[in-house]
Prior knowledge:
Layout: H1 2-9, E1 18-21, H2 22-39, E2 43-48, E3 54-57, H3 59-75, E4 82-90, E5 93-100, H4 107-110, H5 134-144, E6 148-154, E7 158-165
Helix pairs in contact: 2-3, 3-5
Amino acid sequence: xxxxxxxxxxxxxxxxxxxxxLHVLIREIVDKFSLTVHERGGELKSHFCAGEHILxxxxxxxxxxxxxxxxxxxxxxxxxxxxRIGTQCSDEGFMISVEDHGVGISLENxxxxxxxxxxxxxxxxxxxxxxxxxxxxxxxxxEAHGGHIILKSELNKGSRFDxxxxxxxxxxxxxxxxx
Length: 179
């Protein structure tokens, strides 16, 4: 992720788009990630409502995006994680939602959370590992695919990240030359 972010910032990043069945991809990620959540006594559920789910995407980077969001949902859930991931189609395109009942993000920090190297301040104590690159990477990769991400969150209640990808990803190009 660090290398990809660095290349993006230098304008040397290329997406390798191919047709990918996002339902199959998400199932594979959920299957691998479920053990981590279950070890903490939590649950990870998926629901797929999108009729059209084969999109031209960079499989490796979309895998990293989904994994990053699931990992954050797990890390920022202080007790038994409750995580939902789902898909649907809307006027804006294909949507992937990742929702949790974790610590949430204050309105003030929601404006900053997608900045490179930004971490929500918790005083001098960082009990959760990270460098502040993950959500910047997520946003950058989704935008490189011609999409966008929306965050809805409330402190002590959880967060929901909605990723929108255009259904016709061919029009967004196969290369990304700007950060």
